[in-house]
Specification:
Layout: H1 2-19, E1 37-38, H2 48-54, E2 62-64, H3 66-71, E3 75-76, E4 83-94, E5 101-114, E6 118-119, H4 138-143, E7 150-153, E8 159-161, E9 166-169, H5 178-192, H6 202-205, H7 213-232, H8 244-256, H9 260-276, H10 313-324, E10 336-342, E11 348-356, H11 366-375, E12 380-386, H12 396-412, E13 415-422, E14 427-429
Parallel strand pairs: 1-2, 7-9, 12-13
Antiparallel strand pairs: 2-5, 3-6, 4-5, 8-9, 10-11, 10-12, 13-14
Helix pairs in contact: 1-8, 5-7, 7-9
Length: 438
């Protein structure tokens, strides 16, 4: 019962703000002071607490409880009103069937006051907080997102496609301001964190379309997540919807589901943490996770005679159409760079989808090209990528990348046999065109 009461208290507060015409997740915080944080611990508040505290419109970002103020020898001025903030507490109960003790999370709340509501505090001059993970510019946030989706420009509207794992946007020139462009991009990137290969968020994966409960929750997550990212990027969205229809729509949703606002804010915080690559405990960089390589028993591996022979550009192109285009993450509308791993008899041991770019560009690094080839014990490799335009003629960038990788292969004693550019329906071999020779 107490858990539900906490949801009710927070939902009622947000509902009151919406009724007054204030959308808490549309109220940006000041970049120079940073996120609201506790005066004693200096830790920033998270999730729905950020929007609750920002909506109070105090200049200082520092907050503390009545007890914390008393412990510092200060006092809250008479008549000042507190703001509720929520936190999760592990509650231990006994399983009726097994008799074992288990912990369940319960949402609880307490009240905090801004330091400007207190007397006797030595606030002093606080330094400007450092940006999270060294990132502050919006373009850096986008560029350094782990496992990013493909971003395509020139679309008629902004969207995220879970099936293609692709963000579509109009060209930048169609946005009134750079802030509006990045706010829209952040919104779609938050959607992309719900993909099954990232956070696997049910609100995205189980969405039944516009008007459904998962859809409404996912939209709220994306709005709040974009607000978090705009705050970290030190920008604020200039064009926001505070219309009566917009406000009434969210009021109706919150009245139907008292847990919606708290849960959506928590998911938005997780999405923001993922994009910024930070840990919730200390807002620091996430530790490097060990990479896994699948080890297959030799008796399960195909014999050399069963492996597909790859001794001509045509045989490589045939392999591409049979195996690469059927890959679930292959996107024919973007350039995809693939490396074929060959044994000493020029038979294909396997392939690696190294990188997915845009309609006409792709980022390729020698480290990524040769890493899995070395791990698989390849004797030689064949480079391949597609041109979504259908025209297989290599560009100057294709030629330069090829020659750079040839030199890298020479140092590693791994021969680069060819670079095939796949078009529709033809293909081109850079070796046959003479670009393998200086």
């Amino acid at each position: 019962m107490k858990n539900q009461t906490s949801y009710d208290r927070i939902t009622d507060r947000i509902t009151a703000l919406l009724t007054q015409g204030t959308v808490p997740w549309h109220k940006p915080w000041k970049a120079k002071t940073g996120l609201p944080r506790n005066f004693v611990s200096q830790k920033p508040y998270r999730g729905i607490n950020v929007f609750l505290l920002i909506a109070m419109s105090y200049e200082s970002p520092f907050w503390l409880t009545f007890r914390q103020a008393a412990q510092l020898g200060a006092c809250v001025r008479k008549g000042e009103k507190a703001c509720p903030v929520v936190f999760w507490k592990q509650w231990q109960i006994e399983d009726k069937d097994s008799g074992e003790q288990k912990k369940i999370p319960l949402l609880r709340f307490h009240h905090v006051f801004n330091v400007t509501q207190c007397d006797g505090l030595n606030i002093g001059t606080e330094p400007v907080p450092a940006s999270v993970n060294g990132i502050s510019k919006p373009e850096d946030i986008v560029a350094q997102m782990p496992q990013p989706p493909v971003v395509k420009h020139g679309m008629s509207r902004a969207y995220y496609s879970p099936h293609e794992d692709c963000v579509g946007l109009p060209t930048r020139e169609r946005f009134d301001t750079p802030e509006g462009y990045y706010a829209t991009l952040f919104h779609e990137l938050v959607h992309s964190t719900g993909h099954e290969k990232r956070l696997k968020r049910a609100a995205l994966t189980e969405s039944a379309g516009f008007g459904s409960n998962p859809y409404c929750k996912e939209e709220l997550i994306a709005e709040m997540g974009a607000a978090f990212l705009c705050g970290h990027a030190e920008i604020s969205e200039r064009v926001i919807d505070n219309s009566a229809a917009y406000l009434n729509g969210w009021l109706e949703q919150l009245q139907n589901d008292k847990t919606l606002i708290v849960q959506a804010a928590a998911q938005a915080q997780k999405a923001c943490d993922f994009i910024l690559d930070v840990r919730p405990e200390d807002e620091g960089p996430a530790p490097q996770q060990p990479k896994e390589f699948k080890v297959v028993a030799l008796r399960e591996c195909p014999t050399p005679e069963e492996m597909q022979l790859c001794d001509t550009p045509q045989s490589a192109a045939d392999y591409w159409r049979a195996h690469i285009t059927t890959h679930p993450y292959f996107n024919p509308e973007c350039e995809c760079f693939v490396v074929l791993h060959l044994n000493t008899r020029r038979r294909i041991r396997g392939h690696n989808l190294v990188s997915t770019g845009t309609m006409d560009t792709i980022l390729v690094h020698a480290r990524e090209v040769f890493r899995t080839a070395i791990a698989s014990g390849a004797s030689a490799i064949v480079l391949m990528h597609n041109h979504p335009s259908g025209e297989p003629a290599p560009s100057e960038a294709d030629i330069k990348v090829t020659r750079d990788l040839i030199r890298a292969g020479q140092l590693l004693k791994m021969e680069v046999l060819d670079h095939i550019v796949v078009g529709n329906p033809t293909h081109a071999s850079l070796r046959e065109l003479g670009y393998f020779f200086q």
